[in-house]
Each structure stands twice: as structure tokens, then as C-alpha cells.
Amino acid sequence: MGMVIGNSICYALLNPIQPFLPFYWVRGQVTKPGGEGQSFRTVTIYKAASGIAKEIRAITDGQGNFSLNIYELNYYQNESIDFSDNEFSIAVYKGSDGFGKNAALMKLERNVGFVINNIELAAGEGPIDVIVPEGTVPLTIERVPGSTDIKISWNPLNFQGPQLFVLTGSGIGEFHNDRLAGQPPIWASINGIGAFNQQHVNEGYIIYTGLEAAIKEVYIKGLEAGRVPGDQHPNNLGTYLSQAPAVGRFDYDLKRGNENLVSIPLIQSNKALGAVFGTNFMDKDKIRTYENSGLGSWPEASFSGGGWDNGIDEVDEKKGYWINVSADKSISIIGSVRQTNTLYGIKNGNENMLGAAYPKKIEITNGAGADLLGLGAAVGEDVIIRIYDNSGLGSWPEGKYSSAGRVWDLGIVSLESRKGFWINNKGLVPKDWTLIKPY
Question: Under CATH, which number does the domain 2-123 receive?
Fold first, then answer.
């Protein structure tokens, strides 16, 4: 049974099998300034609300031409296709020459079966492509609407019957890349674990329904069928499991009142406040962050009528966030695990409310006061770190770094992934601080 869109016939199948998909084509040419077509460029299209993690791609031909079917978003990524909002983004990944194109919204015309979208590249623009190591399976993670469940997906045409592994923790930040035995927590197959609904594996996704209350963090990795997780990877940088990208969920128990200074230790594909923290809130609940440019300010968003206002445009994983709730509650964030170092800009003065960018507790000292963070060496001055403890009445544990002795006292011995923290740089000028990936 078919329907007509413009002069094109669109075959609407309940379970379409490639290549018999409904279609709406996005076609165009990718050029550099001057008009020369660019071959082997990667064009990406995705729904703006979902982010680039749920994309489809095309590679340009020898003249820079590309063609993509919007309905592949439904087939590969289970995205609904609705032309009423026109909320589709298109971008070109940055190439080795430094040219790409940042995301822009596309306008789709319902009365025709295609749209022409020519793209001129610009120096320094474009998302950075992440190369997925051989034998591993890239995963995406999203919330199941109207539920606390989460959905973990992959491309079922490229990866059939992948092996999926899970790691869980208590919420302090217990991620690691590949331990399969020994000191817990360890990575294990999801097979036989009731919290994972695997009925839709052949369609390219599973549903995670939650584990016992003590589990506050959960991470998933995927390997191609037949790969042995503990075997050495061909890149000689570790095992197959260690090289696999991970997605995860991190849970928070929030206390009533302004007593929750949290971090966002997972990379967010959609940085809108509601997408990151969800909507399990009550009217007049608030989220605040500190803007440390200039004299400082406190952007604040309020929850009302089922959503957040526009007081905070988007989240930044390197910042801390105060969450003020009307009643004790649990919330969760989802996202991808960061596998690169993180650069923080540290202003001088007490103007740095930061977030832990990794789902791994980071030791500050080795017990003798050594500067394992590398923060003191970067700043070169006295530094104070303060963390808010939201148990009971609340307190401010404080750690101090002495530039003279190049050591920390033992007021704070670690940074937990769930907690935000303040850094007071006593120096006269701002400094950059690179936090090394802790796993």
C-alpha cells in the first residue's frame, strides 16, 4: 500500500527492509569557498532534539555530491519522522584539512519528496568524528518516554547479535575500562541479568529496566560477535573491551532544600536542561549554576508545568549545578563516557564552580600529600578545593594545596563523580588546568 508525496510514491511499510523504505531525500553538494566540490566528506543528519549521537551519514562522491534519505533515521535510529516541526540538523564533519560545517537546521517541504541543501565548508567548523575501534560496537542511549527505563541501541545492519557487557557501581564513580575478574566492580555479560530486556536485539536495541536500589551507576559496552573481550586489540593499546566506547546512566539521590551540588560525569548529546536532568521535578524546583566570567552571575532555571524555563540555555559538563527540590527524590542522567583529557579554565579568586567530567572517583593525594590532580602545578599558587556534603545538615569539607611545599593537606582526599566542587585559585591570574583521564 502506497501514498503519494508530491509526484513521488512513498511505500509505507510497517517493518521496512532496506532498500524498500519510505523516502524523503536530502541532496546537495559540499564545496570549499570558491566552489570546488569536496570528495570523501562525511555529511551527518539528525533530529535536533536527539543530538548527533542518533545520526545518519553519507560520504560525498568525486564531485562533492551526497544523498541521504530522512527515513533512514526511523529505520536505523528508531526516530519518528514528523515534517511539522522541521527540527532536522545537517552538518559536515571536520576533515584532516580543518574544514567542516557546523550544524544548521533544515527546512523540509512536505509537498515534494526531496530538498536540495548545498553546503560550503568553513575553516575550523564541523563536529569531530570519533573513530570506533575495530571489533567494537558504537552504542547510543536514550530515555524511554514516560518511563524510568533506558534504551541502548546500535545499527542492526552493521552489527548483528553483538556481545553486550555491563558494569555497575555505587554512585561515587566506579567506572573502569576492562577488568573482567578480581576486585569488583567487574564487567560481565548482560545475558541472564533480568534488568535487561533483550526481546528486540534483532531490531538493534535492548531496554534496561533498573537494578536494585544500591546500584547508582551502570555502564554498557558492545563488541562484535566472536570477539574475545580480554584479547589484545590490534591497535596494541589494550584489550578489545578496553577499546570499546561506553554509554551509561548515573543516579542521584537529591535532598529537599538547596543541598545538592552535582556534577555531570557523562557526555551529553543533547544539552538542553530537560534532556539532561529529565522532568521528574515539581513546580518551583530550581537548578542554578555559576558563570565565572567577569564579576560572576547565577543563571537559574525553574520547573513549571512539566518543563524547565529558559534560565539556563544548555548544560556544560565541566560545571557544577545546584539542584533545589521540594521533596527528596532520585533522578538520573544518561550519556557517553569521556575518553579524553579535560581542560578547565581556572579564574583567579573564588569563582570556579566546577563539575567532575568523569564517572570515576579521582584521588587528590596518595596519602603523603602529592599533587595527583596536577592542579597545583598548573596554577602554581595556593589552591583551595571545597565540596558540599549534602548528608544531614550539610557541610563544606575543604582541601588546601600549598605552593611552597607542593603538597595537599588531607582535608579532601578525592573528587567523587556525583559531586560538584569549588576551586579557589589564590593566584593573581587565571590558569588552564588539564585533568588527565583517570582510567
Answer: 2.60.40.1120
